[in-house]
Amino acid sequence: MQNKGKQSILEKIKRPVDPKLFIKEIDGLRFLAILTVFMLHLNNYVSRSVGRNFNAGISDFFSWDWFINRFGFGVEIFFAISGFVISLPFLRHYMYHEKKTELKVYYRRRFSRIGWPFLLSCVIFYTLYVVANRLSLAGESPHLFSAVAYVHTLIYGAWAPFNPVTWSLEAEVQFYLIAPFLIGFIFSNHSLMLVKLLGLAAAAIVVRALFLDDIARLHLDRTVFVFLPLFLSGFLLAFIYLRHNDFLLRKSYVWDAVAAAVFFGMLWTTYAPNRTAFTVCCFVFLVAVFKSRLLNRMLTHKAVYVLGGMSYSFYLLHYPMFYLFGKVFGQHLMWSESYVANYFTHALVFFPLTILVASVFYWVVERPCIARKRNVRLRAANGFAGELNVN
């Protein structure tokens, strides 16, 4: 009975998608990505609460800081996932001549999907930020308006003060704007597809490596142009998924070893000026999620992929929630002289509470934006079934 109850709850809260098109591995990857982001940002909070420099040991391989600070690559995994899910319906058109995705419907779907949860979270946290810091509501409003317009980083060259994680949503939106044209350029000619894709990725990597200071000065260091190779790796995975799905279905424990190796490779190369090795490791890791046995089994567990499907709400809310929870009872969790012990004590309390609050937000705000029945019928009628899996 208990198992049936758990299954029923999971069924009710999971993303409303067509079961025939749902890809468990993708939502499992989302869970892994949001978990690493949680771990990184909790470390930031706990370090600041005790006056500790969380970057102090970032170059010391044997330190906690070396390990935990590299978990920011969860955001970059999200970028690769976006490249995968956004490109699928377009690739079905270019590769199998399915009905073409209309840009008007695509853009409306994208912005209605992410826009309302984003707007509401920005308004809530902006208000709390202004009140808590006794600032002028009107005086700080340019930060709010630029954030909800997805241009805060471009204007200020810095994170939004009321919710720093919104920078990655700006990069995502920039990607959504150019994705249809990128996909058309790359995949309209099958014979040159790989050359174009790798050429664009290589060009972006070279430009970033050579002109990083200039890019930062122009406030472009957190934009889609810097992270383009990761989005493109998602394109390549989508191509393999559609054209060589039998390859992804052949699983082996060898790929578990490969996954472990390239996961460490992502840690090792996270801060490398040249992003070639990191991008390759990230792509191979995505492939390994499909082809491995143990890792695949973990990430396709129902509880894991259902929570992964809620990762957008988790991402929007987690950073400010950590600080809000800390205001309430953070001091009571500092029981040990060991920083790491205190960190995991915070994790045991903050993670479940954040998931609980964000789950309510997901149910009330995000889930209704994902797929209403009339929109599902509209997409099906217009050949948009592939978009049912979009994050």
How would you describe this structure to a colleague?
By secondary structure, the protein is mostly helical. The chain has one domain (9-380). It is built from 19 helices and no strands. It has helices spanning 2-13, 24-49, 64-68, 73-96, 103-132, 141-148, 152-156, 166-187, 193-210, 212-217, 224-243, 245-249, 254-269, 276-291, 294-299, 302-308, 311-329, 339-370, 373-381. Helix 5 runs antiparallel to helix 8 and helix 17 (311-329) crosses helix 18 (339-370). The longest helix is centred in the last third of the chain and has 32 residues, at 339-370. The radius of gyration is 21 Å and the shape is globular. The chain starts with a helix and ends in a 10-residue tail after the last helix. Residues 380-391 have low confidence and may be disordered.
Topology as a string of helices (H) and strands (E): HHHHHHHHHHHHHHHHHHH
How many domain units? 1
Number of DSSP E strands: 0
- 3D shape: globular
Structural class: mainly alpha
Please report which band the strand proportion falls in: under 5%, 5-15%, 15-25%, 25-35%, 35-45% or over 45%.
under 5%
- The portion of residues assigned to helices is over 70%
Figure out the total of helices. Answer: 19
Average predicted confidence as pLDDT: 91
Unreliable sequence segments: 380-391
